[in-house]
Design a protein that fits this description.
The chain contains 3 helices and 4 strands; from the N terminus they run βαββαβα. By secondary structure, it is α+β, with helices and mostly antiparallel strands.
């Protein structure tokens, strides 16, 4: 299992558009990628579930990837967070 933590910097937090992009990105991996906030964890393949976490600016989240291509998934999804959120 690979993991990384990140503090959201985007003023809007994670809204519908980045949630949809994360869901789309997750589909290219064989591993399961989840996002966690406040003890609740959801699969990023489900954008509505991501939105239900209510992730706002300043929130600390954790991304985990577990499976065959977990290292690549964490690297690419982490890059998306650092560049966009």
């Amino acid at each position: 299992m690979e993991t990384f933590s990140y503090v959201i910097k985007d003023i809007a937090g994670i809204h519908a558009y980045p949630a949809a992009i994360l869901a789309e990105k997750s589909k290219k991996y064989k591993c399961t990628v989840c996002i966690e906030k406040g003890g609740r964890s959801v699969n990023i393949a489900r954008p509505v579930a991501i939105l239900a976490l209510g992730i706002q600016r300043g929130d600390k989240i954790r991304i985990t990837a577990d499976g065959e291509d977990e290292e690549q998934a964490i690297k690419e999804i982490g890059h998306f967070f650092w560049k966009n959120l």
